[in-house]
């Protein structure tokens, strides 16, 4: 039975092969070619079907991943609007669509950012006149012309006012809100897509960023502080906490919430704020980029939070600044002042600043190459002709370094142990062979939290997520491509810093003070 079935199946195949052999050579070639064509068509159809099926699956996975900026797990359906509590108030996400940031591979060639970060406008500022002073004078003068009224009319109707401790002029624009109103769009420029902001931002940071970016401007004030550069402030509705009311009443400058409008070229203030929060230092004031309709230059301006506690004796006296020479600073580093909360001896020469604060300042200033605090005479690097320290008398001080005064060492009135990193004008276009290592001189410890971020290779990822929140700043720097160039500079300096730590045996310790 089995043999008969085998013959039934095998006999047609034998006849077919024998007939194929008896065919002419041309017909046999034609048959083989036809079989090959059919086989190729079948294989191509199978490959196209598998690619289409895989594309559907990856598209669905990508949709699931990008449904939140910080990889929140959601269903395939669009989520309902999410409402949550932040600092006692209800906050609603400001976007319904999502843009997910993916990391690119490391570029092989160094980026040339000289044209993007240091515009020609900076070089046109005269050295003997502060840039901020020129900026505020010109801008407020433009406001006077735009309103069509002269200064005499403002004095008569009470719109211009004076302060006791610092002369300032205030222009009320409440009545002209239809022309100068800053709430032209209900869409916030602070983009937070998930239920909470990145973990390095506190609820107060988010609240301050939203205020600086979206608050309605009620009044513009030009504040003169004697020899110090003038300030251009904008004031919004009164929402001052009871703890800050005594500072507000003492200064009599900002009756509500205020922000300081800086020169458009000082965009490093915004980057410095995000870098400070990512590293866990928390020593800078919140800063965002914002365009103002009453400033007709069309450029985004860095806006920094106004903190009245930095002026305990009024604007005329300036910041609560610590006067310290380089020699006294180095001596305080050796004595480890206020370490372990031990009060220093009266004749030790210690300042009120805690020992760990200098380590945080040195790390922060080195990454951004801010020399205006610890090295305002530019003794640790080769300055350029447009730098302020090239002026007469500055470089001559480097011969006697111990007598050089530190500058811009600021602390709050009620918190003399901790520094406030103010006026953070960083330089991204300084070459690696000309870094200011003088900023790290005398430092024997560095904060563990900040160094761990630099070692973890997640600095780029965190900075991208952080800077993405500020849409105006993100777009003003050229989007992802421009932000990547800035982060490239910080990453290269971080490698130099880690090498310096290993070479000099610097300890990395926890600094919770």
From TrEMBL:
The keyword Transmembrane applies. It comes from the Eukaryota. Keywords: Golgi apparatus, Membrane, Transmembrane, Transmembrane helix. InterPro entries: FAM198. The chain crosses the membrane at residues 29-47. Its main location: membrane. Pfam families: FAM198. GO terms for cellular component: Golgi apparatus. It is found in: Endomembrane system; Golgi apparatus. Belongs to the GASK family. PANTHER family: GOLGI-ASSOCIATED KINASE 1B, GOLGI-ASSOCIATED KINASE 1B-RELATED. This is Golgi associated kinase 1B. It comes from Monopterus albus (Swamp eel).
């Amino acid at each position: 039975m089995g043999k008969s079935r085998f013959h039934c199946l095998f006999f047609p195949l034998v006849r077919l092969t024998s007939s194929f052999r008896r065919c002419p050579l041309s017909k046999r070639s034609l048959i083989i070619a036809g079989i090959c064509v059919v086989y190729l068509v079948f294989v191509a159809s199978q490959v196209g079907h598998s690619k289409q099926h895989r594309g559907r699956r990856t598209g669905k996975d990508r949709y699931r991943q990008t449904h939140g900026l910080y990889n929140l797990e959601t269903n395939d359906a669009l989520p309902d609007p999410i409402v949550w509590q932040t600092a006692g108030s209800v906050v609603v996400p400001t976007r319904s669509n999502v843009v997910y940031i993916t990391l690119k591979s490391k570029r092989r060639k160094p980026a040339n950012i000289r044209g993007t970060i240091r515009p020609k406008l900076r070089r046109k500022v005269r050295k003997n006149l502060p840039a901020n002073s020129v900026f505020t004078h010109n801008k407020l003068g433009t406001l006077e012309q735009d309103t069509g009224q002269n200064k005499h009319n403002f004095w008569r109707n009470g719109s211009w006012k004076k302060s006791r401790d610092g002369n300032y002029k205030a222009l009320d624009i409440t009545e002209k809100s239809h022309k100068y109103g800053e709430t032209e769009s209900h869409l916030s420029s602070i983009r937070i897509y998930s239920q909470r902001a990145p973990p390095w931002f506190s609820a107060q940071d988010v609240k301050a960023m939203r205020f600086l970016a979206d608050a309605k401007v009620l009044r513009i004030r030009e504040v003169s502080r004697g020899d110090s550069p003038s300030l251009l402030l904008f004031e919004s509705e009164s929402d001052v906490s009871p703890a800050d009311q005594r500072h507000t009443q003492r200064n009599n400058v900002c009756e509500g919430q205020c922000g300081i409008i800086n020169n458009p070229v000082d965009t490093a203030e915004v980057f410095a704020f995000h870098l400070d929060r990512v590293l866990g230092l928390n020593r800078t004031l919140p800063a965002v980029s914002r365009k103002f309709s009453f400033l007709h230059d069309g450029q985004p301006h860095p806006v920094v939070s106004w903190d009245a506690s930095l002026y305990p004796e009024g604007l005329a006296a300036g910041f609560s600044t610590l006067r310290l020479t380089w020699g006294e600073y180095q001596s305080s580093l050796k004595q480890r002042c206020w370490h372990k909360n031990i009060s220093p001896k009266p004749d030790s020469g210690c300042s009120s600043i805690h020992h760990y604060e200098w380590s945080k300042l040195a790390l922060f200033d080195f990454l951004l190459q801010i020399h205006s605090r610890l090295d305002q005479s530019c003794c640790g690097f080769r300055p350029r002709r447009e730098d302020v320290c090239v002026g007469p008398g500055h470089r001559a001080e480097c011969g006697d370094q111990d007598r050089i005064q530190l500058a811009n060492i600021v602390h709050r009135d009620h918190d003399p142990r901790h520094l406030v990193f103010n006026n953070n004008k960083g330089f991204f276009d300084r070459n690696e062979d000309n870094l200011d290592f003088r900023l790290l001189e005398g430092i024997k410890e560095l904060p563990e939290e900040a160094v761990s971020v630099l070692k973890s290779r997640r600095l780029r990822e965190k900075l991208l997520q952080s800077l993405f929140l500020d849409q105006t700043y993100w777009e003003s720097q050229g989007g992802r491509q421009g932000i990547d160039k800035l982060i490239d500079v910080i990453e290269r300096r971080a490698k130099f810093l880690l090498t310096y730590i290993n070479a000099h045996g610097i300890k990395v310790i926890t600094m919770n003070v």
